[in-house]
Each structure stands twice: as structure tokens, then as C-alpha cells.
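About this split. The held-out portion is used to measure sequence recovery: a designer receives only the C-alpha cells and must propose an amino acid at every position. Recovery is the fraction of positions where the proposal matches the reference. Here is one held-out target exactly as it appears in the evaluation file.
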């Protein structure tokens, strides 16, 4: 690489917005067994069978993506990237499934992190596919630009989905099994599972007014259903890190402001 200038690629303070994007506004809550019974009495099951899927999450070894509240996963055969639409709203995301857009966002997130650290970047061509960025085995030394992502969380989810009297709200009830090395499920034992429900509203904007209205609708609906007492929950991946990768979780507590605002395990 001799003779090439080292420069920091320009980054935008806010990611570019899509006029036709779909924003997911969600609130997560813990459900006790009696609360699950209450939910089933007051909501309508959307499908007769549970949906099961497997997610593998990827990041750098120093959590460049997760520290920016951005989550790259491979769900079954496809890649998805969840990025926040508002810096102070941990539960408001745009979910991107188009691979070209995923690659654009990944480069922005990577460049932003390097710029914040004052690290100057080589002007290298990025690959066109997400898979070309992934090393299934964590490398011994620093990740190269070609293989800078490694898997850090592998889980299987069994999901039931419900509709409510508010047609714009969907409820997902997830039972998550953390996967062992080699692909086997850790479920059972019960201690290695995580159960949570998410109230979700889909919108075309993540602006403050839209988010506030969505949150008010969710609050009204869960109170109507007799679930107003349920304790607020959090990401299943953060639960995994807190229980299985404490060093990584502690790193995020220090370096990711949104994690501290969640008041986990209060």
C-alpha cells in the first residue's frame, strides 16, 4: 500500500433517510406465566402454529456496530440490519433487508467509528456481499477490511404473534434458546432461555411526534389488556451478552450510551 494517501472518509452525522422506509417502534416487556394467560385472553392469535427461526449476530471484536445500537444478523438464509432512526430512542429502528443498502450502512457505521477514534482509513474498495465481510472464526490478529465481522451471538426463537383491538399494534411473544458451540440448542435447561413480548407499531417516520403517539397507543393497549404492571424488557441479544459474555456487556455499558439509558436489571 506504499504511495497511497491515508484519509478519513467523510461521514454524515445522521444516516440518509428513505422516503419509503418502514420504521419499527417497539416496547418490550417481561411476561410471567399468569401474564401470558391474560394476554391470550385479550388478544387474537394470528397463526395456529409458532414460527421458529435462527439468528446469528455479527460484529467486530470491539463491537463497532453494537456500540452504535445497530444489529446485523443472519436470519435463516438472509441478512438483516437494524439501525436506530433516533439517537435517543433505543426501541425505534429501521430494518433493512436489501443487501446493497446493508452494505452502504455498514460502511457508514464503520467509517463513523474509525473517525470518532481518530483512526485514518485506507481508501479501499468494499465487497458487494455481506458474506464477504464475515469470518466465521475470530481471527488471531486485527480484522482485515475483507473479513472484519465475526459471529458473537447465536440463538433460536420460537414466536407467537397476536393482534389486538388496536389494528396498528402487533404483539410478538418470543421464547429464545441460546445455541451452544457446534449448533446444538441450550434449551433445556430453563435457565438458558429468555422469554419476552414486544408490542410493535410500524410507521413511515421515526420523528418525535410519531414515536410519542405510538408509545401512547402501546401503553393504552397494554393497560386495557391488564398488562400495565409488566416490567419493561430489553433486547434478547443484550440479555445474552449480560449472561454469557459479561466482558462484552461491560464494554457496551461504558462505550454505548444507549445501554446505560435502558436501566437493565433494575
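Reference sequence for scoring:
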Amino acid at each position: 500500500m506504499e504511495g497511497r494517501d491515508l484519509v478519513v472518509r467523510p461521514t454524515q452525522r445522521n444516516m440518509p433517510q428513505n422516503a419509503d422506509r418502514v420504521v419499527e417502534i417497539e416496547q418490550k416487556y417481561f411476561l410471567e406465566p399468569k401474564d401470558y394467560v391474560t394476554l391470550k385472553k385479550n388478544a387474537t392469535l394470528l397463526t395456529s402454529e409458532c414460527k421458529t427461526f435462527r439468528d446469528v449476530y455479527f460484529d467486530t471484536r470491539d463491537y463497532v456496530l453494537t456500540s452504535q445500537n445497530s444489529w446485523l444478523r443472519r436470519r435463516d438464509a438472509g441478512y438483516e440490519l437494524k439501525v436506530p432512526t433516533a439517537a435517543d430512542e433505543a426501541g425505534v429502528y429501521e430494518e433493512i433487508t436489501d443487501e446493497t443498502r446493508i452494505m452502504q450502512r455498514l460502511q457508514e457505521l464503520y467509517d463513523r467509528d474509525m473517525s470518532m477514534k481518530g483512526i485514518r482509513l485506507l481508501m479501499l474498495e468494499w465487497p458487494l456481499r455481506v458474506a464477504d465481510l464475515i469470518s466465521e472464526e475470530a481471527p488471531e490478529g486485527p480484522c482485515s477490511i475483507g473479513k472484519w465481522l465475526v459471529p458473537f451471538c447465536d440463538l433460536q426463537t420460537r414466536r407467537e404473534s397476536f393482534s389486538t383491538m388496536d389494528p396498528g399494534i402487533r404483539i410478538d411473544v418470543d421464547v429464545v434458546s441460546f445455541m451452544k458451540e457446534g449448533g446444538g440448542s441450550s434449551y433445556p435447561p430453563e435457565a438458558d432461555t429468555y422469554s419476552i413480548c414486544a408490542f410493535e407499531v410500524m410507521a413511515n417516520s421515526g420523528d418525535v411526534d410519531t414515536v410519542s403517539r405510538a408509545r401512547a397507543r402501546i401503553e393504552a393497549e397494554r393497560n386495557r389488556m391488564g398488562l400495565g404492571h409488566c416490567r419493561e424488557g430489553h433486547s434478547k441479544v443484550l440479555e445474552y451478552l449480560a449472561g454469557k459474555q459479561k466482558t462484552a456487556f461491560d464494554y457496551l455499558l461504558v462505550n454505548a450510551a444507549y445501554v446505560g439509558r435502558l436501566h437493565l436489571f433494575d
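Annotator remark: The chain has six helices and eleven strands.
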